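Limitations
The structure tokens in this dataset are predictions for the assembled complex, not deposited experimental models. Users should treat interface geometry with appropriate caution, especially where small molecules or nucleic acid strands are included. An illustrative entry is reproduced here so readers can see what is and is not provided.
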Amino acid sequence: MAILMDESTARTPPVDLGGAHQGAALIADKIGIVFPARGPVVHEAEITGDDRMVWTSRGRLKGIRALEDISFSLRQGDRLAIVGRNGSGKTTLLQVLAGILSPVSGQLTTTGRVTSLININLGIQPEATGHRNITLRGLAAGYSHKAIEAKRAEIMEFSELGEFLDLPLEAYSSGMRMRLTFSIATAFEPEILILDEWLSAGDVSFKKKATGRMREFVSKAGILVLASHSRKLIQDNCDTAIWLDNGRIREFGPAEQVVNAYEADQKQTKDDPGTLAGAA
Amino acid sequence: MTLKSSVTTTTVGTNRVNFDPLLAIRDVVDGFSRRSLWMAFAIDQIQQRYRRSRIGFAWIIVSYLIFVGSISLFFGNFSDLAHRHFTAYVAINYAIFQFLMANISDGCAVFRSAKTWISSTPLPHSIHVFKSIARSLFVFVVCLIVAFIVLLVLGQKFSPVALLSIPAFIVLLINAVFIQITFGYAAARYRDVDYFMQSITRILFFTTPILWVRDEHMKTGLRLALSEFNPFTHALEIFSSPLLGELPDPKSWIIIGWLTIANCVIAICVAGVSHRRLAFWL
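Predicted assembly:
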């Protein structure tokens, strides 16, 4: 079992992680995130109900609670899926795990290099050539010039772009662009891989190739965290799952079981228009 | 496997620490060490900026020469300096002033314009600062080379005193890092900082002795007070005077020295408070 919800295990930080190499680890301990409120401030009296809103003692809007009390522990080999409806905090949780957002309460302990494919277009410059973009994107992902050069030939081959790599990206069709960004994003070996939905690109024949490459890429990861709406992807790739609901863990456990519970709930909500208003 | 990454364990969480100056210092050190990243993106941005134009980079030179040339033409007789000397004076002062100003205005936007980066990858924040400084440094070096050519054409002779502007520039460069960090975080939190600085920089152009000579106005009250109070006056003094063959005023060096220390402390405090919060502000 990958997720330890036991209070004592989650709270005590592991002591021996820095020592002998035990592979990747990702430990979330009671993580909470509150986004500061922006724009016109509403008064508490005007709004009732939603407990995600945090108010000051004077009844002014202080922030929006996106995550609350998230604890789990992942070790080398664990594959975690995150499910939940829009606005349940999936992306925020991924951002915390990737080290982008710092928890407002609780803490996150990470061992190993995190590869987050939250935005695979980061560092892509439309004015630069394909080759230059391989370099820029690689640097943006934290790799050295040497590591990038070692992967270049393979990226060139997989993307099937040939001489187009010497042209600026502006000259590419959107399919070609996606093929390039996909090929770059999946070229390096991840230790802790954080994925917001599965990646794919291109036409039917390329997609087939891409699926194979993506599978291989994901399988190399020491730890996988995948946020997805696809039951099949979760079944194929993950062994445990977290169901996020309004920023809290509603259910965790074997992927199959959690997805079933989530989907059953989804159906129920669809039948009951009264609760739909809660969806952000 | 080509990628060798050391296994590191990091813990993040703010429930205990709201002010973390060590984190800020580590960010700057980490950011600086990733030179290949910020250099590559700086070069790319410079290329991009002039890409669609016919003469490209030459625009830096042309706009600089147009400015210096017309100032020399229109205001040359306002000063007691010989016309040639005034032109040299403006050429050097304008180049360094432009660099210092760019660091303030770019500094205000440095994190805001990197919003996508900061909200999608956990890189050190300072890489955006270094990238921005590298960009304005490039423009400065180009202008300075042109300024030297102008000075040589005007018959200006360089004495060994000129070497004093090298340490002066290094000190100003270090200040640029602190200033961009401070303004970057401050403007990310409060947009007003940006608007305030925009209105101030316009005034600074006139209160800094670029177009007028400081010594000639030593006796007048307000202008003297304003220029002495203005840190840019001293920054220009320690950098430009040696290049124009004069020893810089020791008082200016002392003021810049203290300012550097103050800037450093302020930057560490601002970054210490803001570092963990930046992603939420953008």
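Some entries come with short summary sentences. For this one: The helical segments of chain A are 7-11, 90-97, 130-140, 145-159, 174-185, 204-220, 231-237, 255-271.
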